[in-house]
Amino acid sequence: MKRTAFPAFPALAGVLAVASGAAVAELVAALLGRPQAGTVVVVGSVLVDAAPTPVKEFAVATLGTADKPVLLGAIGVVLAVLAAGLGIAAWRNRAVGPAGAAVLGLVGTAAALTRPAAQIVDALPSLVGMLVIAGALLPLLRALRPVVTERTRRSVSLTYPKPRSLTETGDDEHDEGPGAGVDRRAFLGAAALVGAGAAAVGGIAALLGRSSGAAQVRESVRLPAAAEPAPPLPSGIDPGFVTANSDFYRVDTALTVPRVDLASWRLTIGGLVDSPVELSFADLLDRPLVERVVTLNCVSNEVGGPYIGTARWLGVPLAPLLREVGVRQGADELLARSVDGMTVGAPMAALLDGREPLLCVGMNGEPLPLEHGFPVRMLTPGLLGYVGACKWVTELEATTFDAVDAYWVERGWAPQGTIKTASRIDRPAPFAPLAGGTATVAGVAWAQGRGIRAVEVRVDDGPWQPATLLPVPSVDTWVQWRYDWAATAGSHTLAVRATDGTGAVQPEERVTPFPDGATGWHTITVSVS
Ligand SMILES: Nc1nc2c(c(=O)[nH]1)N[C@H]1C(S)=C(S)[C@@H](COP(=O)(O)O)O[C@H]1N2
Ligand SMILES: [Mo]
């Protein structure tokens, strides 16, 4: 008779051994202060960088900020399946255990060492994890070895009820099958021990990661007051004009938020410049700070999407710094590099054209949140995030667009994506049930750098009607608009379109974000009773 039972115990042994290895790897990474080098995280980061653009677009569009936990969860599932297979294979042939552990460990090591901002110590978590996998698998499988010899087993099986699988499989050479003749209690004891150990180690690693120095250091940062504070917002502005830090969208490639050691952090400005400089955080704060209200948006934002926000940014003006270092003729790109190796390439001409690019240290009255680039990020009014807003920045290199492709440009996105004029209906919510009478339709429109001249609303196939624009501090922010609609019973489709400061009307044609930003009118459907 063919054996059908799934070798559950060896599979479990594999899963537990690999879980222990992964947990220890995360702990070693946390202890090294390099949580980004944990095996699971590092493999995830390689996948993020390697993912084809459509996959990434899909992830950003459908999962939003949950893309990161979903990716890590998926890696966990794949790893568990591999681990179960490893356990079964190693149970049939002991040599497979260490070999499989070595493969997993070396894949992790290779991933860690090839990250853009890799350090040699990043090899350690995966190497230690590899030893833990091999070390945990052996005793677990040993506990699965038949406790009795062929001869004694017969007598044992007379006194103990036969395990089911033994009855099914009969006396073939594999009759030490799962649960057959093994010391279940010894195995489950060992398994429980290993499982608890892995959970404890993983928990400690997570705790260490969370309470890492960066959060405390950020708490202790006292930012100087702005030499040039932002003027109060014009009266009549809606309170939602400035996005709270906790509501501000987050888009980046970082699976673990980079934890920057403020004491050793430096910003270097070099490349095609006459006199490169290196600045500490204190050096930056010694320079006069300005405060600006600026809207930031992401090229990946779909029509009506959420990847846009407005904040009161505090920072050091970048243009004077660029003049001090003396950018050489011909350097048309400023390549910003973050501590995790991500690159953002800004057109030098835009940085020096009179707008105010900032090296931001503060956001809405607080030090930059860790997820938004603590301690320092770039922010360039009128440029999309992937062109002008490098977070966790540590290096600025004057170079040329011919010489270097920044991260997203390498992946096919427009080298100097410009902000497309766009508008969004925020109220009422799509499909909201409305009572008849006057309903306020409201939202935002943006064309940073050019400003918004008009917003119009259309109900069903009716004419475009002008909306009221609320006051704005500058052309670098979104504009709030409002339209009082005499709603009649039935189902209605509302559409919005904006006209920018140059007089250009937002195009109707729908295009997806790749490669240089979405276009199209945002519409919603509501039903009025
Ligand atoms: N270091 C780093 N900086 C980055 C990114 C990134 O992935 N890594 N993403 C960029 C993109 S695509 C956008 S839209 C903005 C988003 O900034 P936010 O997360 O603070 O909203 O950051 C930019 N700066
Ligand atoms: Mo972005």
Largest sheet: 5 strands, mixed
- Share in β-strands: 15-25%
Strand order of the largest sheet: 2-1-10-5-6
Number of helices: 15
Which small compounds were modeled alongside the protein? the ligand Nc1nc2c(c(=O)[nH]1)N[C@H]1C(S)=C(S)[C@@H](COP(=O)(O)O)O[C@H]1N2, molybdenum atom
The SS-based structural class is alpha+beta
Shape: globular
Radius of gyration, whole Å? 29 Å
The beta-strand count equals 19
Helix content: 25-40%
Please tell me the overall pLDDT.
Answer: 90
Would you identify the regions where 5 or more consecutive residues have pLDDT less than 50? Answer: 149-176
**Number of domains as seen in the coordinates:** 3
Q: CA-to-CA gap between the ends?
A: 69 Å
What does this molecule look like?
The chain has 529 residues and is α+β, with helices and mostly antiparallel strands. It folds into three domains: 8-145 and 183-210, no CATH class; 245-410, Oxidoreductase, molybdopterin-binding domain (Sulfite Oxidase, Chain A, domain 2, Alpha-Beta Complex); 422-528, Immunoglobulin-like. The protein has 15 helices and 19 strands. Strands 2-1-10-5-6 form a five-stranded mixed sheet. The longest helix has 27 residues, at 184-210. Bound molecules: the ligand Nc1nc2c(c(=O)[nH]1)N[C@H]1C(S)=C(S)[C@@H](COP(=O)(O)O)O[C@H]1N2 and molybdenum atom. Residues 248-254, 296, 298, 338, 342, 344, 372, 385-386, 389-392 line the site of the ligand Nc1nc2c(c(=O)[nH]1)N[C@H]1C(S)=C(S)[C@@H](COP(=O)(O)O)O[C@H]1N2. Ligand MTE binds at residues 248-254, 296, 298, 338, 342, 344, 372, 385-386, 389-392.
